[in-house]
Design brief:
With 368 residues, this protein is of the alpha/beta class. It has 10 helices and 17 strands. The chain has helices spanning 50-58, 81-89, 141-152, 169-177, 194-202, 214-223, 234-244, 250-256, 292-330, 334-359, and strands at residues 6-8, 14-16, 23-25, 32-34, 40-46, 67-73, 95-98, 109-112, 118-122, 125-129, 156-160, 181-185, 207-209, 258-263, 270-274, 281-284, 289-291. Helix 7 (234-244) runs antiparallel to helix 8 and helix 9 packs antiparallel against helix 10. The longest helix is centred in the last third of the chain and has 39 residues, at 292-330. It is elongated, with a radius of gyration of 27 Å. 36% of the residues are buried.
Length: 368
């Protein structure tokens, strides 16, 4: 197999080697022209039940469409991206490959996110990042959709499929704010309808349809008269720029969010409130991002861990008090023995109360 080889022309444009798209140099201006660059970018996100949904969707896609397709699936960090790309290839006529950093976007291609890496784009190029998890996921659907929205604006298409929780809801809102197109799998068809319902509850989408109708919807969008590309909202551009620079600047976060009294469950930094669109989210200055629901879930985990630490400490103190009480009882000093046993009994009551809290549901349900 030939290794990729890139060349820079005098204008600084990348010319790509064999197997990476047709390129040529004009004699007049010596510029490298990418004939295979897509006019539209289709970002696809799925979580639980996503394998079968993606297989069904890609089986209807037509390779001649002027679009590139990027897919984020919530997988274990130990998953193998090449295996997923290979499985997708079995169900489509498009070229399915694992997304690699710096790889050019080509129409008629499907790019699959690597496990444990964020997938983003710059203009006509794929970017792979190791930035902080968003909504407790890396790769995150929100990260991909937000990047697609800012760089492709009204030429972006977001598709949300089956899944749990709400990663992708804020990203879909970003695509809509930038003039892009929104498609959601019909929750009645989805194996896990929670993620599609999260999007539908947060905004009005362009299409809520079964998987078998999505390819036609994409064709209809691409068949519309081409319009000049929009400029993205400044706050979204700032947020994407901060991510691309792996921004850890507190002042930069203050420009797109406001201080809250909450701390980041991951790193302990202060959380900033972001509510420029319909989705309320919290982000620390190192980049960890949470919706209200995800923040509550992380806080529940922290609270449970803290209570178990308290139970352990109280159990140890109770055992020590009982040991002292038994020592004084053997010595016939009953006043001291009774005092230590009473203190141990009070601690036992506190321990029972804490265990009752642990046996209850700390993870309270809440709408975003």
């Amino acid at each position: 197999m030939l290794a990729q080889k890139n060349f820079l022309n005098p204008a600084g444009r990348v010319c790509l080697g064999p197997g990476y798209g047709t390129t040529f140099m004009t004699e007049q201006n010596n510029l490298c022209i990418m004939e295979t660059a897509p006019g539209y970018l289709v970002a696809i996100g799925a979580s639980a039940g996503g394998f079968n949904a993606v297989f069904e969707l890609v089986s209807h896609l037509r390779p001649e469409t002027d679009a590139a397709y990027l897919i984020v699936l919530h997988l274990s960090s130990r998953s193998i991206g090449a295996y997923l790309a290979h499985r997708i290839q079995d169900h489509t006529k498009l070229k399915s490959i694992v997304a690699m950093d710096g790889m050019p976007l080509q129409k008629g291609h499907i790019y699959v996110a690597q496990p444990n890496h964020h997938l983003t784009v710059s203009k006509n190029l794929i970017r792979i990042g190791n930035g902080p998890a968003e909504n407790r996921w890396r790769p995150s659907i929100d990260v991909l959709f937000r990047s697609a929205a800012v760089h492709y604006t009204n030429r972006s298409i977001g598709i949300i499929l089956t899944g749990l929780f709400n990663d992708g809801t804020a990203g879909m809102s970003a695509i809509k704010r930038c003039g892009g197109n929104t498609i959601v799998q019909d929750p009645n068809e989805a194996e896990y309808p929670e993620l599609p319902l999260s999007v539908l509850n947060a905004m009005e989408v362009g299409h809520c349809i079964p998987l078998g109708e999505m390819a036609n919807a994409i064709d209809m969008i691409l068949a519309k008269p081409e319009e000049p590309q929009n400029q993205p909202p400044p706050d979204l551009s700032a947020e994407v720029d901060l991510y691309e620079r792996i921004g850890t600047d507190i002042r930069a976060q203050k420009q797109i969010g406001e201080y809250t009294p909450y701390t980041c469950p991951e790193c302990g930094g202060v959380l900033f409130r972001h509510d420029q669109d319909s989705i309320l989210k919290f982000k620390c200055h190192t980049g960890h991002s949470y919706t209200v629901r995800d923040l509550l879930k992380e806080q529940s985990s922290e609270l449970e861990a803290s209570i178990w630490v308290a139970v352990r400490s109280l159990e140890q103190r109770k055992d020590l008090l009982l040991s002292l009480g038994e020592k004084y009882a053997r010595s016939g000093i009953n006043q001291f023995a009774d005092d230590y046993h009473q203190k141990a009994e009070k601690l036992e009551q506190h321990i029972r109360h804490l265990k009752a809290i642990l046996s209850s549901d700390l993870d309270l349900p809440m709408e975003d």
